[in-house]
Write a structure and sequence with these properties.
41% of the residues lie in helices and 17% in strands. By secondary structure, the chain is of the alpha/beta class. The strands form three sheets. Strands 3-5-4-8-7-9 form a six-stranded mixed beta sheet, sandwiched between helices. It has a five-stranded mixed beta sheet with strand order 2-1-6-10-15. It has a four-stranded parallel beta sheet with strand order 12-11-13-14. Helix 8 (113-122) runs parallel beside helix 14 (310-327) and helix 16 runs parallel beside helix 17 (399-406). It is globular.
């Protein structure tokens, strides 16, 4: 749960308050919060999570699962509240969290922790191209994606009625959400045009000719899309499984559903109509077109970075930080591996650390940092903040894999015990990253802000080996 001090940022217009609309703990919400704090010179010590779940760390798994379901249902929106969602109001709330001054650029697009670190190094805001909404599903079932779709259709219609400039992607993924997938329906709401609040922010807050950097998560997933503004996907890339693993006969699906209290024999997903659509964190083409057209009209060049896998942007950003720190006379020799919500760009900058961000605790994401470390110049210290996923899945990394990451440090090898305690089913607040990073020695002053030209050169040169496309 995010601090009320910032969450109550005033915005104009009618509709449900934005801080109630955007799902607690969702990627866009967290990343705007940590980036805005870093640019204000604050840390993330006030970012947490609902206390009810944190008290149940040592409880039996069925008790924790039931508590997670109840908490998800209480936090989700009712049907009437879904109808009151105002996507423009949400855009204004995101933009309103940044200090009121002129900026030398802006980063837009898909949610990614490395994008937040990149924005902080550049000294510019980060704004998402969409946001997540959770709606109540009181008689839901984690093993019934078809029922989730049927329940989601009228809710999506209500949301779209008041927000014709968005696309609603419904995601039913027990691999990433566990039993909570049976208590709520989750919508990734993506703007199909540049929100008016963003256009005002860019016009009022950007320095003349300041560039715009648009990051696009290019991962794909099979979806059902009838062309009415509402699409549906069973599973998601963040779950650590592949689309084929969501077939009723797949062993991995059975393990995931049983851990969430479901039964794979009941699994029936809606028919797929698009085999390779961009997954939930993709950027709508209309959003990109509007942002580029706005930039052309107002003299702000737009650069697009297509990210095939989150590891690619994490690796390039970490390498970029290392060179940036060294040019400023610092060692660039101390690495922090962050995970999920456990990040604090402001503390990373204060301590002169190199950040590598894992999207989550899935084995393939942790393997990504292992491969990058194996091919990099060694670091003298490696600190690992492994966010527990809060559920059991065959796709998640075990603590030995996280310890192997820390083992790349030449002198210091540290896996945070607070995050590791109760792994993988514990619940750890975002502020845990701040608490750990505050103990790192200070390495001030911070380097002068990174120039966008240098960042683009690094993204083009190093990113080419990682599959990044910059255009």
């Amino acid at each position: 749960m995010v601090s009320e001090r910032v969450e109550r940022t005033p915005v104009s217009g009618a509709g449900l308050p934005a801080e109630r609309v955007v799902a607690a703990g969702s990627a866009a919400r967290i990343l705007v919060a940590v980036t805005a704090r870093a640019l204000r010179g604050d840390d993330c010590g006030d970012l947490g999570h609902p206390r009810a779940l944190s008290r149940l760390t040592g409880a039996p798994e069925p008790v924790r699962r039931a508590a997670a379901v109840r908490a998800a249902g209480r936090a989700a929106l009712t049907a009437a509240q879904v109808a009151a969602v105002d996507a423009e109001r949400v855009a204004g709330w995101f933009a309103g969290q940044y200090p009121d001054r002129r900026w030398p650029g802006v980063v837009l697009g898909s949610p990614h922790g490395a994008a937040a670190h990149l924005a902080v190094a550049l000294g510019v805001p980060w704004l998402p191209a969409g946001f997540e909404v959770a709606a109540q599903w009181s008689r839901g079932a984690v093993d019934r994606p078809d029922a989730a779709y049927d329940h989601g259709v009228p809710l999506a219609d209500r949301l779209l009625t008041g927000n014709p400039r968005v696309h609603v992607r419904q995601v039913h993924c027990p691999a990433s959400r566990g039993a909570a997938a049976g208590a709520v329906v989750t919508f990734a709401v993506r703007w199909r045009a540049l929100p008016r609040a963003y256009a005002r922010f860019l016009a009022d807050r950007l320095e003349p000719a300041a560039p715009v950097l648009l990051l696009h998560d290019a991962r794909t997933w099979p979806v059902r899309d009838g062309g009415d503004g509402h699409s549906f996907q069973a599973g998601c890339p963040a779950g650590g499984l592949d689309p084929v693993d969501f077939h009723p006969d797949a062993r991995a699906l059975g393990q995931v559903l049983r851990a969430a209290g479901g039964d794979e024999a009941r699994w029936a997903a809606p028919e797929v109509t698009v085999a390779g659509a961009f997954a939930e964190h993709g950027v709508e083409s209309g959003f990109e077109h509007d942002a580029r057209s706005w930039g052309d009209r107002h003299g702000h060049p737009l650069y697009r970075v297509v990210v095939p896998q989150p590891d690619a942007l994490s690796a390039v950003t970490a390498d970029l930080y290392r060179r940036w720190l060294r040019r400023a006379g610092k060692t660039g020799d101390r690495l922090v591996v962050e995970c999920g919500r456990l990040l604090d760009p402001g503390q990373v900058l204060r301590a002169g650390l190199v950040p590598y961000w894992c999207e989550n605790a899935t084995a393939r994401r942790v393997a990504g940092v292992e491969w990058w470390l194996a091919g990099s110049e060694p670091f003298s210290s490696v600190d690992v903040l492994a966010e527990p996923p809060g559920l059991r899945s065959p796709a998640h990394a075990g603590l030995p894999q996280w310890l192997a990451v820390a083992g790349f440090g030449r002198r210091r090898r540290a896996l945070d015990r607070g995050a590791a305690r109760g792994y993988p089913v514990a619940s750890v607040p975002t502020r845990r990253a701040t608490e750990v990073l505050r103990n790192q020695p200070c390495d001030l002053p911070a380097p002068p802000p990174l120039r966008m030209a240098d960042a683009l050169a690094a993204l083009r040169d190093a990113g080419a080996h990682q599959g990044l496309l910059v255009c």
